[in-house]
Design goal:
Elements: H1 6-12, H2 19-36, H3 41-53, H4 57-70, H5 75-87, H6 91-104, H7 111-124, H8 128-139, H9 146-158, H10 162-173
């Protein structure tokens, strides 16, 4: 089998060809992991991530919640619960999970995603200045993906800071 790498990131970001085949492969791998150890938190998390790629947010949330019930200290699992809850509009409980993930892993390589989800939650609840601040922090991470920068631009525009919104938009075009 080809190792997980750039192709899988491209499918996560919806940039690759044959996305459905890669999603099916991810689901198969996760189910295989869970068949070997049904109590593996990372297996449940991987299954949830694959389900998110199919936009099956409710089922993904269940998988993430199982992962974090098996290991409450699993920071990326806590973030994933928060992300899924954000996707279904449960912003308050999403923020709790995001804050817990950040406490568990303050230097997490996915911190940009945690900050961006928190920014999105703030924007959807009308806290535009907070959303812009958090979005800017997320976009400042060196590994922030393009959709994180786009979210930062949106949050800055909502907060009325068109100069910063334009700066993020220029970065996207680059």
């Amino acid at each position: 089998e080809k190792p997980v790498g750039l192709d899988d990131l491209q499918h996560f970001l919806d940039l690759g060809a044959d996305r459905e085949a890669h999603i099916a492969r991810a689901i198969d791998f996760a189910q295989s992991c869970l068949s070997l150890d049904p109590l593996d938190p990372q297996g449940h998390w991987a299954f949830g991530r694959a389900l998110m790629l199919r936009n099956e947010v409710g089922a993904a949330l269940e998988a993430f919640e199982v992962a974090t019930s098996l290991n409450p200290s699993f920071a990326i699992g806590q973030y994933s619960v928060g992300f899924a809850r954000s996707m279904i509009g449960s912003t308050a409980s999403s923020d709790e999970c995001i804050e817990n993930a950040q406490r568990l892993s303050p230097l997490d390589p996915m911190r940009f995603a945690m900050l961006a989800t928190h920014a999105f939650n703030s924007a959807t609840t009308g806290q535009y200045a907070k959303a812009a601040r958090l979005g800017g922090l997320a976009a400042a991470h060196p590994n922030a993906q393009f959709h994180i920068v786009a979210s930062a631009s949106m949050c800055s525009a909502l907060a009325g800071d068109n100069t910063v919104a334009a700066k993020h938009a220029r970065r996207l075009r680059e």
